[in-house]
Design goal:
By secondary structure, the chain is an alpha/beta fold. Helix content is 31%, strand content 24%.
Length: 353
Amino acid sequence: MPPTDTNQGENPQKTSAGPKRKGHAKGPPADVVGIEVGAGRAEGAPAVRLHRSPEGFLRIVAAGFVPVVSDIESILAMPADMRGPWALPPAFRAPSAALAVTAPDALVRQSDSVEDATADFDASTLRTKASSTGKKGSLPFVAFMPEELARRVARLLPEGRKPTAVSIQVSPLARVNAFAASPALGAAGGTAVLVQIAANTTTIALFAKGAVALYRELPVGEEDSLHAVAGPMNVDNATAKELLEGGLVDPAPFLGPLVMPIFRQAELSTDYVLRRNGLVVEQFFVAGPPALAPHWASIFRDQTGREAKVCDPIADFPQEEGASLPPDFDKTSGLFAAALGAAAAAMQEEEET
């Protein structure tokens, strides 16, 4: 289960198959459907089909929800020998597929070794994979999840789809890869800091010339942020979300103490890359739920004096003419970041399973 390869250079919308490896007849696939499993959405599993043109440019062919089992409890309850008879809608029937797994114990670490990355776990129960970031002297990524979960997820590959070397990925790094493939990183010259808010975690990823130089996951996310606002206001999280989306409350007094340690880590990461790579990082991006990302960016600016741009990696992603998209895609595109990142990673990977 390799993690997402984020080394796309300074033009992250364009990928290259690179040199052919001995014993391989062809490079990575050019038509892939990425599917996020574990999101637990009633509509189904978020999915994005990507196509790479002969010139190497990525474009969205289709995005939407597909009828693949989408909650972790149901996946783990599947018989161990069950094959998923999942047939995709026509718009999503790419020859290859990649799955991004969203689960509390589907994790990624940047570490010297698999042993160090998984020291707090029983390594005998995990499926792990280490992968270089592609930069000399940089720490590799180690992605891992319970072997039991990995086996069952592997059976969710849709009927007739060919597996790739990154058929199973972890969602946090898949979301980072979506940013790596987005126009935003290209416009930043390939060097920037991404603060990616997820449900229960926040990822800090520092890109240096298109590749991830530093990666951190912190145990604070959307749910913690909503609770920090809901508690003092004596409302539930759903109401707090509505208030934040409508701009009806200034959350800075509630969110500031929660998110400032995260922003401090983001700032410290720039010192790291300055010392290690000699690069000055001046661009910061915040991606995540629309109810929170603008407020996080505002607090970042007020507390650090630096500008942080709110970024939806998929909002401005190139699309094929006539792409099959949900009618409200302009408002819900952020839901598909992990799926898009999974597909983009499969297109970059040269090794085959």
